[in-house]
Write a structure and sequence with these properties.
heterotrimer, A alpha+beta (155), B alpha/beta (175), C alpha+beta (418), A: 155 residues, alpha+beta, Alpha-Beta Plaits, 3-stranded antiparallel sheet, two-stranded antiparallel sheet, C: 418 residues, Cytochrome-c3 Hydrogenase, chain B, 2 domains, 10 strands
Chain lengths: 155, 175, 418
């Protein structure tokens, strides 16, 4: 059952339509990116307890925690290295991370702005020494969103 | 163990001699692990291939244990009328770590070639009677004595070697 | 058996070890306009007919297996989809099922989570198959079909993006369940789009079976008989085109594939047209599965995520899944810590190379692009980053960690990156 010009109708229809490219801008305006698009994670500073869960689960090691001797911590996010997997959001015990919905943040490794995009200081806070670390690592191991216990632990 | 062995024999419709099989473990319904040591593995595979008619080899994986290497042949027994497969993992145990040697199953499965060469690359296990045991996946400049999947080579060391050979390549390209 | 497949054992890059009778040698790749993927094909010809063919692989070793041994099970969940560019969901699914089995939470996963996983898998099969037969038409010189298929592929890509937030890599799965839910309004939005796509795929099938200009390029080309297929053990659509009716979804059912109504597609002809039709029919089947899944999602409720501990108990498991290209095989060993002791991945393309080389024997050289494309070749990309300093023209090769360190320093001390 071989025929020729099976696609003739399609060809004629497309010919009548005119160039597709002139509608592109209109189509982009009509179809904005979906609400749940994945981009870069943000940390809500008020909620962050500096437990370090996000640092431990991050597959690309793009979140770093830095501690000084005055028991203050800072969380750094290496923006070009982040692959927007959302693991930190899933495993955060206090729901302190949300995924940013701004599609303009979708920069690749090769289109960054030297002065802005290397990293962001995403949170500052205090931690409570080695004992705190140990207790928190136990909590992390237990897994799940055990907010209550974390709150108890913080006092 | 003997019950599981009988069940497997019933599925395959052959008798597996007790001296060739070390242990049979039923992982789940219709999924078996068969252990055999290096000296008996070839004979066992011959029975599985020629008498039981298993022709599909999914892959081969090398495993490094504390005091020995294991090579695991993942084969599928296919029941064509029911569109069903029974996965069997034939694990070859007791491969000496100092002089790793294992019989090549290329005679039974053509597909074994690539997988065996890959294990030779990554673990240095020598497959006897393989006609063309040469480098398959590792890059040309990779040093011969470094088998990257061994536990003695850490991630940092592998990175160092990779950087070194890439730099060499770049320098050569410059000249 | 080894003499029959002698072509595989030639030490050739310059043609010095050529088979007797061959008078021309064609080298394709690793960089070649026909094939975007880095593989090196060597084709020996006598006149216009192929005598033997060979392939070299390994231009793209990224060391994922080694990297996995150095990361935790949780981190690996997001590394594993990167094993393949286009069949990322199936790699993640096989990994996740393997971890579920080792951690012993298999029974706790709700039906709803399983349905969402299945939707992700089937959507991926649809877009991969549509992409593949578009490129096949392009290789056969029928570019109109390429554009039409890729236009229609956008429908399923939009659905995947809506559900998961990503176009190609949905990354919806986690050990113990799924990450995101599919709410009712999204499912309602997707149903008419799927109906539209079914119509389009039926039209594609009509073109491939009836239009002479494409059918003549595919029919009776590169025949792989069932007897040969049993020797070279192809998997997936390549095998099902040659009369080996095995699909992992039917052979050892996983997720809820045994509870959903779908048919196994296989053809006995063994030529390229048969593999094409297998994929076309499978696309239609997958679309039907997607619609069923969305229907069932309305009436199914359940927890999305069961709790999986960080440390996975000792054990080993061998898991398989049906990727768009064939059978995807993972073998994992856990030693009781939070890192895998050994993790082995075998992507389907490696198992299909033998069958493709066998197909080439005695064919015309003009059919090579179509035959080489028939098994849907898929290799992957590297993990190093190269940066060129524009001022000095000096090249640096950095891996990710060094890149990050450098970036931190540059930021901290407020100085330029290079």
């Amino acid at each position: 059952m071989k025929k020729v010009l099976v696609m003739g109708g399609e060809a004629l229809r497309n010919h009548a339509k005119g160039p597709v490219t002139k509608h592109v801008l209109k189509r982009i305006a009509e179809n904005p990116p979906p609400e749940d698009i994945r981009t870069i994670p943000r940390i809500i500073e008020d909620r962050c307890i500096m437990c370090g869960t996000c640092v431990k689960v991050c597959p690309t090691h793009c979140i770093e925690i830095e501690k000084d001797d005055k028991e203050n911590g800072m969380i750094w996010l290496l923006k070009p290295q982040c692959m927007w997997c959302g693991h930190c959001q899933t495993y955060c015990p206090v729901d302190a991370i949300h995924i940013d919905r701004d599609p303009n943040l979708s920069v690749s490794l090769f289109s960054f702005n030297i002065h802005q995009d290397y990293e962001m200081l995403v949170a500052k806070g205090s931690y409570k020494g080695d004992v705190a670390d140990k207790k928190l690592s136990e909590l992390i191991e237990a897994g799940g969103k055990r907010i209550k216990e974390v709150e108890e632990f913080r006092g | 163990m003997s019950d599981v062995l009988k069940e497997l024999e019933g599925i395959l419709n052959v008798t597996l001699p007790g001296n060739l099989v070390e242990e049979v473990i039923k992982v789940e319904e219709g999924h078996f692990n068969v252990m055999s040591n290096v000296t008996n593995a070839f004979e066992l595979m011959k029975i599985l291939r020629e008498d039981a008619g298993i022709y599909h080899l999914s892959t081969i994986s090398g495993v490094e244990k504390d005091d020995e290497f294991n090579v695991c042949y993942h084969i599928q027994h296919r029941i064509e009328d029911e569109f069903r497969e029974v996965p069997i993992n034939l694990i070859i145990t007791k491969i000496d770590k100092n002089k790793p040697k294992s019989p090549s199953m290329l005679e039974f499965f053509v597909a074994a070639d690539y997988y065996e060469r890959e294990i030779y690359d990554f673990y240095g296990i020598y497959f006897e009677n393989h006609p063309f045991l040469q480098r398959l996946i590792l890059p040309e400049r990779w040093p011969d004595d470094v088998k990257p999947m061994l536990k003695e080579y850490g991630w940092e060391q592998i990175k160092e070697i990779t950087m070194k050979i890439t730099k060499e390549g770049l320098e050569e390209a410059k000249q | 058996m080894t003499e029959q497949y002698r072509s595989r054992f030639r030490a050739l890059t310059d043609g010095s070890d050529a088979p007797p009778g061959a008078d021309h040698h064609i080298f394709i790749g690793p960089q070649h306009p026909w094939c975007e993927e880095p593989a090196h094909f060597i084709i020996h010809l006598k006149g216009e007919r192929v005598v033997e063919a060979d392939i070299r692989i390994g231009f793209n070793l990224r060391g994922i297996e080694k990297a996995m041994e150095n990361k935790t099970w949780r981190q690996n969940t997001m590394l594993i989809p990167r094993a393949c560019g286009i069949c990322s969901a199936v790699h993640q699914n096989v990994y996740v099922r393997l971890v579920d089995k080792l951690a012993g939470v298999e029974d706790q996963i709700s039906e709803r989570a399983r349905l969402i996983r299945m939707f992700s898998l089937e959507a991926e099969r649809i877009h991969s198959h549509i992409l593949w037969y578009g490129i096949l038409a392009h290789d056969a010189g029928f570019d109109t079909m390429l554009h039409i298929t890729w236009r229609d592929r956008e429908i399923i890509m939009d659905i995947v993006e809506d559900f998961s937030g990503n176009r190609v890599n949905p990354a919806l799965m986690l050990p113990g369940g799924v990450k995101r839910d599919i709410p009712k309004e999204k499912a309602d939005r997707a149903q008419p789009m799927l109906d539209k796509l079914i119509k389009q795929v039926e039209y594609h099938k009509k073109v491939f079976t009836e239009e002479a200009s494409i059918r003549n390029r595919l029919e009776d080309v590169g025949i792989l008989t069932k007897e040969d297929a049993k020797k070279v053990t192809p998997n997936g659509p390549t095998g099902r085109g040659s009369g080996l009716p095995f699909d992992v979804r039917k052979a050892t059912p996983y997720e809820l594939y045994d509870k959903i109504d779908w048919n196994l597609v296989y053809y006995n002809e063994g030529d390229i047209l048969a593999t094409t039709l297998v994929r076309l029919d499978e696309t239609l089947e997958s679309l039907q599965i997607c619609k069923q899944v969305l229907d069932q999602l309305e009436s199914t409720q359940g927890e999305l995520l069961a709790r999986v501990k960080q440390k996975i108990p000792e054990g080993s498991y061998f898991a398989r899944g049906e990727a768009p290209r064939g059978e995807d095989v993972h073998y994992g060993i856990a030693d009781g810590t939070d890192k895998p002791e050994r993790y082995k991945i075998r992507a389907p393309s490696l198992g299909n190379i033998d069958a493709t080389l066998k197909r080439m024997d005695g064919e015309y050289v003009a059919d090579m692009p179509v035959i080489l494309r028939s098994y849907d070749p898929c290799f992957s990309c590297t993990n190093r980053v190269m940066i060129i300093n524009e001022v000095t023209g000096e090249k640096m090769i950095l891996n990710q960690d060094e890149f990050a360190r450098k970036a931190i320093k540059a930021k901290k001390y407020n100085r330029p990156f290079f």
